[in-house]
Amino acid sequence: MDQKQFGYCGIDCTECTVFKATVANDDDLRRKCAEDPLWKNTATNYWGMKELDPKVMNCRGCKAEGDDIFLSCAKCPIRLCASNKKLDSCGRCADWQACRRLVGLFDDAPQARENLRKLSLG
Length: 122
Prior knowledge:
mainly alpha
């Protein structure tokens, strides 16, 4: 598995619409992302934003830095934990299977668990 395409949590960053909009430099897709109820809800409830500006809908994966990382990824507690532990994947952490940060994510993205399992072996 190519670890570069996966976030620390095991999600395939290349499948994210914000990632796709960034790579394609597609302003229409950025607008669609900004209007998506999931992104709008997250922006309102977690980032304190009343509106989500399409200009901030840019990301090249959660291992990117600066302007190449989306606000949600930059503030992600899973990303911060793995980065602070100097891990390239949560799958490299001895406690990943019992991690309270990952439990909710696995409910929403069950493939992330399988990806981490594979990444932990490599």
